[in-house]
Amino acid sequence: MELFLGKIAKMQAKKFNSSKAKKTKKITSSKPKFQQKNAAADGYILWSLFGLLLLTYYLFWADFFPNNASALGHDYRYVMPRLLAGYYWFETNGLWAVPYFTPSYCGGDVFFTDPQNNYFSIPQFLTFIINPLAAIKWTVLIFSVIGFSGFYLLLRRIFQLPVAISFFAAALFFLNDYFIYRMIIGHVGYHPFMLLPWVVLALFWQRNGGLKQHLISSTLTAAIFAYVFYGGGVHLLIPMFLMVIILLIIAKLFGVEVGKIYLRLGLFIGMVLLLSGAKLSIALATLANLPRSHLPLDGIHSFFYAIWLPIKALFFAVPTYEYTKNFIGHTIILSRHEFQIGVSIVPLIIIIIGFISKFSAIKNRLLQHKILAIILIGLLLIPIFVNYYTPAWNAFLKQIPIIKNSYSLFRWYSIFIPLVILLAALLLNIWRLNSKQQWLIVIGFLALALAQKFSVNNDYDSNCRNLT
Question: DSSP E strands: which ranges in 52-177?
């Protein structure tokens, strides 16, 4: 009898466990469907907003290539002949013959040996198949999308932020004034700036892998950075490297697993020197024979204004020559594009609210990582100090390799662009909003950013005959 009752008890227990397992299976199987539904909704919103953003952005800059007065940015008088010279060389000699010199203009001039030459770049390759003006338009479009997608993936995959907030940060990077106004004015060598997030992504690729993964990651990173150099972005090399280091420090401060990232940085530096060796050696030789070390650096005579100027340029109105002439010693007249780094007032609003609401947590995190915090502050002071002027300080800066051949380093203020966007996204994520609330806030903030962008009194208006 006891044996019989024991069998019944075992059968009942088996039924109960089976029923419980089925219920658990039903509950757990319904969760992915809910998540898939939210993911699908996020995807529809993301692609719809990106399409609208891309169209708005295109309508903004397309009128400048050329504008209603049939004018282009003033530096295109230099760029267009060089693109055509590259095209003629390609037609005559093929792709793999290096054009060290060209007879096509100025009675003959250095070509590949010029540090700013971009013969091996997307704009030049596009010129081989379409006209130079169309090549510039496609370059703007392609690298805008590259920058957006890179920043979005960086925040989604590395910083693990929600779709809405990642889209928000990517959109702000997509809309940054630094890239588009440099392209408008004719500084085509600045188009690789939008590759910045891909450099960081490549460094983080399989960051906990073995030696093979470290070598692949470092090679990819070096290849992207080498393109910056070959693409004419010689002025971007130091600022972009500093940006990469700053983003890595922010990642560490916010708890992102960085793996053996410092090993990869060392490998990356070695590889980028190898990949860029052909261009680097000949560019340094050219600079040695055509030095500009006798030109003083434009600098700000007030340390307060050296700090205020990038704040004003990032979040408020871009400084003009009339504004800056009172506290900057101008070697030449610096037009507004030299200070155009704007990302709108939106990141500033979020950063202020975030720091006020989470001040204790942020302070504790910085105190836990004192060395990183000190390094971060030191890196952020670099663009401030190189743009500060006293005769003795200027004389010291003009002794430093590379810097000594510059006459203006205000472009280094661009270091703050990815920093403030990333900080805004990370602090926005702290608010712990649901997906719907995030999208509503993101749409509102982006509307404010676009309204500020289009309300600026633009010296490059569509009827201007001399875009300077």
Answer: 101-102, 109-110
Measured distance between the N- and C-terminal CA atoms of the chain, rounded to whole angstroms: 102
pLDDT at residue 291, rounded to an integer = 77
Alpha-carbon separation of residue 346 from 56, 194, 368 (angstroms): 18, 20, 29
CA distance 153 to 161: 10
Dihedral in degrees, nearest 10, Cα atoms 78, 83, 87, 92: 40
- Chain centroid to Cα 65, Å, comes to 23
Q: Which letter does DSSP use for residue 329 in this model?
A: E
Q: Taking a C-beta distance cutoff of 8 angstroms, is the pair 457, 183 a contact?
A: no
Confidence of residue 458 (pLDDT cuts 50, 70, 90): low
**CA 65 to each of CA 62, 70, 130, 182, 314: distance values in angstroms, whole numbers, following the listed order:** 6, 8, 15, 13, 25
Give the integer Cα–Cα distance in Å for 18 and 166.
Answer: 43
DSSP state for residue 332 in the 8-state scheme: S
pLDDT given at position 243: 96
Distance of CA 258 to the CA centre of its chain: 20
Round to whole Å and give the CA distance between 106 and 396: 35
Q: Of 168, 146, 145, nearest to 156 (Cα)?
A: 168
pLDDT tens, residue by residue, 89-98? 999 998 889 9
What string of DSSP letters covers 137-152?
Answer: HHHHHHHHHHHHHHHH
Mean predicted confidence (pLDDT) in 75-102 = 90
The model's confidence at residue 435, banded by pLDDT at 50, 70 and 90, is confident
**CA distance readout (Å), 104 to 8, 83, 88, 110, 270:** 98, 11, 9, 10, 36
Residues in the chain: 468
Distance CA(222)–CA(269), nearest Å, equals 7
336 is written with which tokens?
């507004």
Q: Report the C-alpha gap between 93 and 99 in whole angstroms.
A: 9
